[in-house]
Amino acid sequence: MKFIVDWIKRKTIWLLTGLITIFGGITTRLANCTQQTTVAVTQIATNPTNQIATVEVASFVANLFYEGTDDPFATPGAGGEAGKLTHVVLQKGKKLFGDALTKIIGKTDKILNTSRVWDSPQIQKGARAIHKKIGHAEKKKIISAFNGVRHKQGNAEKLIYKIINEADAIVIRPKRTMIYNSTGQGISIGTKAGYFIGFVERQLEKAL
């Protein structure tokens, strides 16, 4: 029995060591959504707590758009549960940014198709999202990154392509993922399935 337990321990350590080797050089931020605390995960070496955090970030990204019946944050243990309360901020140039963006690009057709749904008999979801975003900016008395864009479905689809192609920041939350470009424009999509939710303003993103 002791032999089996020791074998399991060795395998577990080997797995964690392998993951840390792969992701140890990644600089990413984990921010607790309720406490607004930030933990820098960079050049992880020997701290077991930080090693688990690094694996959690990798798992969080790896499970982006996971549509199976299992927990979308698959890494087990306390860290896996904590992952449901966090958001991950990925910046252009970091390894996990490319992994996440590749998955988002793979969902482009779904994002576009779900933006074409008729939000009402008069307007489609994408066009309405532009209208809402500009209206919200006027109420907050800020200049919207979408200012001057007419609320037409064709413009919404061009924006979706533009934001994804020019993305330089991605914020992944348990239910919503936001993609932003350097001009301040962003789109919000479902983290689990990748459907279009709406447009978002980078200037209002607290994680950036």
How would you explain this protein's 3D organization?
With 208 residues, the protein is an alpha+beta fold. It has a seven-stranded antiparallel beta sheet with strand order 2-1-3-4-5-6-7. Helix 5 runs antiparallel to helix 7 and helix 6 packs across helix 7. The protein is globular. The N and C termini lie far apart (50 Å). The N terminus is likely disordered.
Keywords, please?
alpha+beta, 7 strands, globular, disordered N terminus
Q: Please give the order of strands in the largest beta sheet.
A: 2-1-3-4-5-6-7
Shape: globular
Count of helical stretches: 7
Beta percentage is 15-25%
Rg from alpha-carbon coordinates: 19 Å
C-alpha termini separation: 50 Å
Helical content class: 40-55%
Please provide a brief summary of the model.
The protein has 7 helices and 7 strands, in the order H-E-E-H-H-E-H-H-H-H-E-E-E-E.
Layout of secondary structure:
Elements: H1 2-23, E1 28-32, E2 38-41, H2 48-62, H3 78-82, E3 86-91, H4 95-106, H5 108-115, H6 125-140, H7 153-165, E4 167-172, E5 176-181, E6 185-190, E7 196-201
Antiparallel strand pairs: 1-2, 1-3, 3-4, 4-5, 5-6, 6-7
